[in-house]
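Anyone up for a design puzzle?
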């Protein structure tokens, strides 16, 4: 049984999509071991509590990054987390944190990386005038929005869109993409060559 950890800071819709997939058996052989928010008032952590999940608030405000990261990693290890999913976690992880879970931290970003990393990616894409945007689930490495790509989904930008309608359609795809990516990683039927993740490899060539 895999133990998922979720880190969030806000709304929590990607967390809810993952939790629904776990409950419905779309992510087999997995449970959510802990949900952690760095913000006490994050709607996502309230939802985790309502669902009876192990929900922790570990405030980050006013704390040096290393100290906060140490507290979060301790809680994840205590709960035996073997795959960590960042779901709207508005903090950069320190290199030390990333090294605690090698190739076991995923993030979702609302653009087709490497386009539009950083904050407000949907607004950036809309303002740039791209005709196609989307979302990316990727491994977390020591650079922002940078690790090897696991799943991407494209979303056309319509002439009738504004940044809100575009963001809403991207979000629908995010919810599907995260479940797909978690399944790929937990099944382990992939290899990463350079930056390229390739699935359907034979067992002799599995892994990173
Ligand atoms: C999503 O757009 C995600 O791609 C980005 O932060 C947002 C989080 O939304 N990293 P939610 O909290 O999962 O609803």
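Challenge accepted. My sequence:
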């Amino acid at each position: 049984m895999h133990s998922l950890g979720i880190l969030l800071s806000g709304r929590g819709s990607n967390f809810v999509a993952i939790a629904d997939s776990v409950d419905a058996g779309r992510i087999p052989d997995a449970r959510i071991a802990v949900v952690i928010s760095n913000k006490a008032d994050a709607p996502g952590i309230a939802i985790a509590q309502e669902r009876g999940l192990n929900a922790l608030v570990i405030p980050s405000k006013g704390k040096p990054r290393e100290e906060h990261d140490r507290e979060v990693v301790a809680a994840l290890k205590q709960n035996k987390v073997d795959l960590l999913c960042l779901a709207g976690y508005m903090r950069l992880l320190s290199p030390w944190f990333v090294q605690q879970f090698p190739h076991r931290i995923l993030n979702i970003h609302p653009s087709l990386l490497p386009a539009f990393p950083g904050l407000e990616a949907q607004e950036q894409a809309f303002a740039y005038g791209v005709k196609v945007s989307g979302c990316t689930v990727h491994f977390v490495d020591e650079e922002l929005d940078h690790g090897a790509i696991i799943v991407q989904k494209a979303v056309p930008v319509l002439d009738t869109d504004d940044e809100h309608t575009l963001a809403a359609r991207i979000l629908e795809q995010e919810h599907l993409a995260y479940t797909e990516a978690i399944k790929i990683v937990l099944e382990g039927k992939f290899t990463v060559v350079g930056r390229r993740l390739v699935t359907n490899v034979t067992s002799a060539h599995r892994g990173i």
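A detail worth pointing out: The longest strand covers residues 30-37.
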